[in-house]
Amino acid sequence: QAHLVESGGGEVQPGGSLKLSCLVSGFPLKKYGLNWYRQVPGKERESVARINIYGTNTTYADSVKGRFTISRDNDKNTVYLQMNNLKAEDTAVYYCNVYFMGMDRWGQGTQVTVSS
Fold first, then answer.
1. Burial grade of 61 (CB within 10 A; 0-12, 13-18, 19 or more)
2. Among 22, 44, 46, which residue's Cα sits nearest to residue 34?
3. Contact 70, 49 (CB under 8 A)
4. Which of 16, 34, 73, 93 has the most neighbouring CB atoms within 10 Å?
5. What would the pLDDT profile of 75-91 be if each residue is shown by its tens digit?
């Protein structure tokens, strides 16, 4: 069974940084690309960043380009999201995601709050 566990969220001031981690188990991470999403209550879940199997290709939402960096360490079964120059509008619950065995798989999410 696939399990994904996010960590690293917290409260920061605008302009601050956080690094999120997604620890994966139950499936071979090295065979799958992964995604980071975020969601604000009452709003649609938004794709933030994607990374391919080898980490050689990444894509980002326009709203985070130049500020966020997705990376992976397959040996540690972990995907990261480095978040720099955070803005108030980045406040959300952040989820990692993988499409595995015909289904989207989600972690429990980690809260990121950006406020002064």
1. middle
2. 22
3. yes
4. 34
5. 999 999 999 999 999 99
